[in-house]
Amino acid sequence: MSENPFLNLTDAQAAKFATGLEKVMREMDNRVVDLLAGARIEGGVVDATTILNSKAQMIGALKQAGFDELVNDHAKGYAAIVAKAKEVIAKDGGDVSKFTAIEAGTLRQLAVADVQGFNALADKTIDELRLNLYRTALSGQPFSKLVGIVSDTLENKLKKHAYTYANTTQLQFSGETVRVMGEALGADRWEVVGPSDEVTRDVCIDALADPIRTKAEWIAADYFGGTPGGYNCRHQLVPVFP
Description:
Layout: H1 7-38, H2 48-52, H3 55-64, H4 67-76, H5 78-91, H6 101-138, H7 143-184, E1 189-193, H8 202-209, E2 212-214, H9 215-220, E3 236-240
Antiparallel strand pairs: 1-2, 1-3
Helix pairs in contact: 1-3, 1-4, 1-7, 4-6, 5-7, 6-7
């Protein structure tokens, strides 16, 4: 095995998330601009104090724009990853019937943690947006300046970071799913799978040169876990059964 069997699946789910995220960000932009418009005072400027105290309204605007539904729908896609992991392991000779409720519980916890990560990311970005708008409004900048800040923050911070997080956590989850299942079945040898191209990291090229090793050997090489090559790694380790 050389191809990562999860990449097509995770790429498709990431593309679906990106489409939904685009719609959510457009709606969020409109709702925050409406919030700013409602805070205008004499002279057309925006009341800074209203903006400072607007965190709850901004979080509410994000929920109303559909962010929670998007994240929860994305998390539901993890079931397909678990099914794919079972298929891969069974094809390689592993008895997936031995996969227990304990391992299933661990995977559910990983999915819950990823959803919480989305919420933490959104909370942090909203705080950054709110405080930036507050400081700008406090200095008496025109309404158009604040509108520009909203669009820039949502486009270059929240949308960009949420998509990256969605893609990264999927890769991490698929790798951890295979690891949890493989270790539950007593696998000791593991094979690295994934592409070898112009963007492949040196550490992954080294791993692919000697693709099947024991768990101890992979750990000694600092190459074990959901994404063994590090952040956003496209390579994973799958168990090798006798």
